Automatic annotation (TrEMBL):
Main location: membrane
InterPro entries given in the database record: Haem_export_protD_CcmD, Heme_exporter_D
Record lineage: Bacteria, Pseudomonadati, Pseudomonadota, Gammaproteobacteria, Lysobacterales
Keyword Magnesium appears in the UniProt entry: no
UniProt-recorded name of the protein: Heme exporter protein D
Species of the source: Dyella jejuensis
Length: 65
């Protein structure tokens, strides 16, 4: 078992490569999730601003009259 983990003397290169691979794999899985959440939040905010703008155009304020 020790020989397997030592990787024939190349363990200092092999195990970090596995670590970097799994970090990149995790990032590749998480980044689209966070990007989707951010885009959906921005879209909801944009729709809310448009709705508010339409509401103001339909019912002008009495203070400006």
């Amino acid at each position: 078992m020790h020989a397997f983990f030592a990787m024939g003397g190349y363990a200092a290169y092999v195990w970090p490569a596995y670590g970097v691979f799994f970090i990149v794999l995790l990032a590749d899985w998480l980044v689209p999730h966070f990007r989707r959440r951010r885009l959906l939040r921005e879209l909801r905010e944009r729709i809310a601003r448009q709705d508010a703008r339409k509401e103001r155009a339909i019912r002008p304020s009495t203070a400006s009259s």
